[in-house]
Amino acid sequence: MFGKKYYINPETLRYERVRLTRQQLYRYVGLFSFGLICLAILMRFGFERFYPTPREIIYQQENNNLRSELAALNLDLQDVEFQLADLRNRDDRFYRAILSLDPIPSTIRTLGTGGAERGQHLRNLRDPGMVMTVSNRIDKISSKVRLQNSSLNAVLDEALDKQEFLACKPSINPISPADPYWLTSTYGYRNDPFTGKRMAHHGIDLAGPVGLDIHCTGAGTVVRARMNRHGYGKEVVVDHGFGYRTIYAHLHDIFVEKGQKLKRGEVLGTMGSTGRSTGPHLHYEIRKDGRAVNPFYFFYENLSSEEYTLLASKANLPEGTYQPVAMSQK
Hints:
By secondary structure, the protein is an alpha+beta fold. The chain has 3 domains: 6-50; 54-161; 182-313, Distorted Sandwich (Glucose Permease (Domain IIA)), CATH 2.70.70.10. It is built from 6 helices and 14 strands. It has helices at residues 22-50, 54-98, 106-109, 129-161, 163-168, 305-313, and strands at residues 6-9, 14-17, 182-185, 188-191, 198-201, 204-207, 213-215, 220-228, 233-241, 244-254, 261-262, 267-271, 281-288, 291-293. α2 packs parallel to α4 (129-161). It is rod-shaped and about 155 Å long.
């Protein structure tokens, strides 16, 4: 194309060099330039197809980092959901129960959040899956947090109104979960261990070693602390007000006296086998307005052995009175 070309001049019969016109020269230069540009474009696209550019490498690294951050955020949200579930469980089973408030219905707690318009802008992303998952979880957690916050505010308002009632109402196990004991008889009808006849059992029996500390389950005043002649042996009866009384029977030792004021968690005696008893145990009763009620309804099971020990220590016990054993309730 660009080599020298010659032709025979018929007039002179000599070889003469072919001279391109200006128009032909422009045409050839244009075609050559266009070919070079097309070749450069094809080479660029081919290179970018098989080899990422430095900018693409940076974007890919940032994308991987964002995916890792989203995955970590997803795990953090899962931990928050577990904590919210635990708080919800405490709210329904303990806080609301002790205040005699109805639990929040599950239909309300599981109401959906957001709508079609929420997160709609995320659908325009190239890969919205993980981002939308995290966004939806955040929406649900936010809704649960708002509901739980509202519930706890209601519980707080109710608690402020019932401070005295909360301090007096029997609401813990009379035996620390750190001490070795076991349930031998529940509330309700059973066969009498002495006569074999089916009779009503107005409390629960908790067995354990002689000398185990027995704690007062709510603030109140001792109205009886002596031997009972009707089979209860050494017993302590505490009047908590608001129609509640608790009975602690078959004690080995009694540490309180009639008229004494007690706090929740304070030791009032030790486990024994006095009276009509087949072995060392505590017979524990709760009476509301003179009628026996199931004590299990008043065990809120939220105190660990450490929390129980702290509660007992705050009851102004003499030093050395409370010595928990390193065992837990089974």
